[in-house]
Amino acid sequence: MGTPELISPRSPRVAAARRLARRNFRGKERMFIAEGPQAVREAAEHRGSDGGPTLVELFATVEAAERYEAIIDAAHAAGARVHLADSEVLADVSQTVTPQGLIGVCRFLDTPFASVVAARPKLVAVLANVRDPGNAGTVLRCADAAGADAVVLTDASVDLYNPKSVRASVGSLFHLPVAVGVPVEQAVQGLRDAGVRILAADGAGEDDLDDELDAGTMGGPTAWVFGNEAWGLPEETRALADAVVRVPIHGKAESLNLATAAAVCLYASARAQRPRRSDG
What we know:
Elements: H1 12-19, H2 23-29, E1 31-35, H3 36-45, E2 55-60, H4 62-67, H5 69-77, E3 81-84, H6 87-93, E4 102-107, H7 113-118, E5 123-127, H8 133-145, E6 150-154, H9 163-169, E7 178-182, H10 184-193, E8 197-201, E9 207-208, H11 209-215, E10 222-226, H12 235-238, E11 243-246, H13 258-273
Parallel strand pairs: 2-3, 5-6, 5-10, 6-7, 8-10, 8-11, 9-11
Antiparallel strand pairs: 1-4, 2-4
Helix pairs in contact: 3-5, 8-9, 8-13
């Protein structure tokens, strides 16, 4: 693959990529970092709402470029600038302990909230005041796996493009529309106006998820509102919902963490919304 082109971490291109670890710089440039073969592959194949490529630049070690030749080809096809770099450069830009040899610089890809509601979604995850980037990315991954139509991060939630959020999404960030910076009241009202039932997930909820499923009330368009990891949903947010639902604890566990509860809720809705298989 040739001699590494960027041998110094002091290269201007490397310095610009490194600054994307900071939220204010990401917001100014509207760029973020995607690390590893899975995320870079998804970024290379993704196109923004304007049809333009999401991946604009790729740093790769010689070893990774040889191992992931198809990804390098996809990056070239997307029009991204591809730089071969030594491992020192990758370590300088990376936000992980053990870099995988591929780091992509990507354009922001969030979707306007108005576009989310205009699409008349059937299943949406709303992250209200979720502060942990790993949880945010994992819930996004769960929503993608459950077939949700969109994810909404409220204005009090973590930055979608935090490197930990991007990694935890394991590529799902590139699969479904994500709206960011939406006040929770606006998110709830906009989704309700689009015919979506609002369910707040809370361990102290008045309604039981099993009872909702048994009653057959979950087959329609639904948005689940998930709260902060430590203290859940404040009363004013709970009051916005059509129902506050708890995941039943049948064993002795005190509670479920945010991502696990989100997976249970989203999959319950996904199952309720799908036609039952015929016995024949």
